[in-house]
Automatic annotation (TrEMBL):
GO molecular function, one term: DNA binding
DNA-binding in keyword set: yes
Regions of compositional bias (Polar residues) in chain numbering: 130-140
Domain of life of the native organism: Bacteria
Annotated region (Disordered), positions in chain: 120-140
Name listed for the protein in its UniProt record: DNA-binding protein
Keywords from the named record: DNA-binding
Organism: Novosphingobium capsulatum
Length: 140
């Protein structure tokens, strides 16, 4: 299939003309091919810049939203660490538990691990209040 071509005349500076002649001297390469590819790349870059400007604002909003989520996750991690440290401090000097209390504690811990594992496996936003209250209703 033959494509239509339009003849153009233009001027190049001497140093660009020398470089074009040197590149076109290689076998299988023509000045037309070199200039066509160069113009195509230049037009593509201009289109990419326009698209980048168009989507840049939306991308910036997304980046800010992710940064806010990371910050909240950092806060929640710190709060959880403080809570665990507090609980370990409170229970550090308690007397040994009787068998029934140990069994109840183990059941609660096992339920917590199952719930946390299920939530992590689903990768869904946890509804901790409903999940934890449901698990506690089944206990004596």
């Amino acid at each position: 299939m033959q494509t239509r071509k339009t003849r153009h005349q233009f001027y190049l500076s001497d140093h660009l003309s020398v470089r074009l002649d040197a590149m076109a001297a290689k076998p299988g390469v023509s000045k037309t091919t070199i200039l066509s590819e160069a113009l195509g790349a230049w037009f593509q870059r201009a289109e990419d810049e326009r698209a980048g400007a168009q989507f840049g604002k939306a991308l910036s909003r997304q980046v800010r939203a992710v940064e806010r989520l990371e910050q909240r996750l950092d806060y929640l991690t710190e709060v959880l660490g403080l809570f665990v440290r507090h609980q370990l401090t409170l229970t550090a000097h308690h007397p040994a538990f009787d068998a029934e209390t140990q069994r109840l504690g183990q059941r609660r811990y096992d339920q917590f691990v199952r719930t946390a594992g299920g939530l992590a496996a689903r990768k869904a936003r946890p509804k901790a209040s409903a999940t934890l209250s449901d698990s506690q209703e089944n206990e004596p």
